[in-house]
Amino acid sequence: MNAFEALPSRIRRGLSGLTALPSDDRGVALALGGGGVRGFAHLGFLRVLEEEGVPVRGLAGTSAGALASCVYAFGLPLRPEPVLEALESLGQLLSRGGMLSRWRWILSISRRPALVDDDDFVSGIAGLLGERRLEESRVPVAVVTADLRSGDVVVLREGPAARAVAASCAIPGVFPPFEQDGRLLVDGAVADKVPVSAARSVGGGGPVIGVDVSNPVPPSVAPRNGVEAAIMAGDASRRRLTQISLQEADLAVRLPLERQVERFEMQEAERLYRLGMEVGEEQLPEIKRLLDRNGVDSMVRKTYARLAFRT
User: In this predicted structure, what is the pLDDT of residue 104?
Assistant: First the structure.
């Protein structure tokens, strides 16, 4: 017996004449994970959804996912060029020929609080988002950060979008923390790399798709020193938290990377964007099934509520 047959007969009769799904009950919420330059895959994924007419009811993003969420929520072009142009100077500073070496990073931050000043960081993102505010977006959007002191997840729904995204991207040691309401806000990936819970809170009851752009698990090798051991431990902890978060999504989408791509390998942006489009196209059938299933579930709930009220 399927779910429809298990319903009381009076509800089945009420549903039997319905052939179309109400438009206000269709749509997905997106939880876009962090990952530096790998976040360009989000733009490709979003472009496919937009071109295919998949309704998006809300977005939540961490770090690069926060930037992609705002690009979509404010109706900006879903292409890599505007983002690359806005972040060009920042990318040149961080990439230094293609990759920010972890060893160079460790040596640099041992002599200063962060590699990049917050004003330079915010101005780069503001070149793309301007003076837009989160509460003014065409689609509800949540920007996820973490409190450096407590480790709490901090979800931003109001205020300047550029500053909120900068806080969500503020990798400790690379960018300084952002002070707000007594908290020190840093990269949301510290606490919630793929923010499924935040997406559900802005999704209006629709299904949640979690998009993970994490690197593949590195080869099983032993750390050569204590610093590498500490880095590996942090990476392992974030992978575990991500797995737990994705279990709460209605659909988990992962980026099929063949090798590790460092956060600031900006020359990989175009390739990752195209990869995101490929993943979006591959997932379209499952996304449409998810939409249809949610629409039927919503009709069942509404019809049951109406009939129960009448009785």
Answer: 56
pTM tops 0.85: no
Note whether 249 and 60 are within 8 A (CB). no
Least Cα distance to 254 among 188, 168, 194, 169 occurs for 194
- In Å, how far are 102, 115, 118 from 107, measured between CA atoms? 9, 11, 20
28 within 8 A of 204, measured Cβ to Cβ: no
Phi, psi of 267 (to 5 degrees): -65, -10
Alpha-carbon dihedral sign for residues 295, 296, 299, 300: negative
SS3 144: strand
Is residue 91 within 8 A of residue 84, CB to CB? The reply is yes
Tokens read off for 83: 């983002």
pLDDT for the residue 293: 82
Residue 151 CA to residue 191 CA, distance in Å, equals: 6
Confidence check: pLDDT of 93 > 70: no
Alpha helices in the chain (DSSP H): 9-16, 40-51, 64-73, 80-86, 88-95, 102-109, 118-129, 161-168, 196-202, 226-246, 269-310
